[in-house]
C-alpha cells in the first residue's frame, strides 16, 4: 500500500514538522481505509485564496477551512473516471486555509498541529466518499474521523488540552 502525497505550501507558513505530520496521518488513514495505491494533493493556502476557490467552484463567497475536490466522485451527466489497472487511484485535491486553521486551533483550545491534521483528514475522508449532509452521514464520518485521529495519537486532549 502506497499513498503518494503531493504537498504544496503557498503560504510559506507550514513547517516541515507539520507537513510530515499530515503525510504520516494520511498514510495511516489510507491503511485504515484500505485505500491501496493512490495519489492525493494537499495545498496550504491563505484565506483569500481559499475564498476565491470557494466562490468560483462552490458559489460560496467566503473563506473556509478545508475544501476537497474528489476525482472519483461523479455528478449527474458526468462519466465515471477510473484508474487503469496497475495505476494508482487519483483521489483528488485537499485545500487547507492555514489562517483559518490557526484561528480554529486557538478557538478550540488545541495545537495548530492537531487542527491541520484534523482538516487534512477531514478533506481526505471526503475524497473517499464520506460526507455530512445528514445526521446519519455526519455520525459515520465524524465517528470514523475520531477513530483515525485517536489511533494515530491526535485524538481530543492528546496535546495536553481538552
UniProtKB/TrEMBL annotation:
Binding site for Zn(2+): 122, 126, 132
Pfam families, per the entry: YbeY
Gene (UniProt): ybeY
Molecular function in Gene Ontology: metalloendopeptidase activity; RNA endonuclease activity; zinc ion binding
Keyword Iron included in the entry's annotation: no
Function comment: Single strand-specific metallo-endoribonuclease involved in late-stage 70S ribosome quality control and in maturation of the 3' terminus of the 16S rRNA.
GO cellular component: cytoplasm
Protein's recorded name: Endoribonuclease YbeY
Cofactor binding note of this UniProt entry: Binds 1 zinc ion.
Protein's UniProt keywords contain tRNA processing: no
GO biological process: rRNA processing
Compartments it resides in: Cytoplasm
EC annotation from Swiss-Prot or TrEMBL: 3.1.-.-
Chief location of this protein within or outside the cell: cytoplasm
Family statement drawn from the similarity comment of this UniProt entry: Belongs to the endoribonuclease YbeY family.
Cofactor(s) the record lists: Zn(2+)
Gene3D superfamilies in the record: Metalloproteases ('zincins'), catalytic domain
Key words, A-Z: Cytoplasm, Endonuclease, Hydrolase, Metal-binding, Nuclease, Ribosome biogenesis, rRNA processing, Zinc
Top-level class of the enzyme under EC nomenclature: hydrolase
Domain of life: Bacteria
Stretches of the chain forming a coiled coil according to its record: none
HAMAP family: Endoribonucl_YbeY (MF_00009)
Cited InterPro entries: MetalPrtase_cat_dom_sf_prd, YbeY, YbeY_CS
Amino acid at each position: 500500500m502506497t499513498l503518494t502525497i503531493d504537498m504544496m505550501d503557498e503560504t510559506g507558513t507550514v513547517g516541515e514538522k507539520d507537513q510530515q505530520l499530515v503525510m504520516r496521518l494520511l498514510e495511516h488513514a489510507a491503511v485504515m481505509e484500505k485505500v491501496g495505491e493512490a495519489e492525493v494533493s494537499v495545498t496550504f493556502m491563505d484565506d483569500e485564496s481559499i475564498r476565491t476557490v470557494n466562490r468560483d467552484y462552490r458559489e460560496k463567497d467566503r473563506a473556509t477551512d478545508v475544501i476537497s475536490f474528489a476525482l472519483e466522485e461523479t455528478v449527474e451527466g458526468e462519466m465515471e473516471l477510473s484508474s487503469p489497472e496497475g495505476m494508482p487511484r487519483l483521489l483528488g485535491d485537499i485545500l487547507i486555509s492555514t489562517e483559518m486553521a490557526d484561528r480554529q486551533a486557538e478557538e478550540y483550545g488545541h495545537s495548530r498541529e492537531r487542527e491541520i491534521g484534523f482538516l487534512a483528514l477531514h478533506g481526505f475522508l471526503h475524497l473517499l466518499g464520506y460526507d455530512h449532509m445528514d445526521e446519519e452521514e455526519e455520525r459515520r464520518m465524524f465517528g470514523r474521523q475520531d477513530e483515525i485521529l485517536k489511533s494515530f495519537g491526535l485524538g481530543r486532549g492528546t496535546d495536553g488540552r481538552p
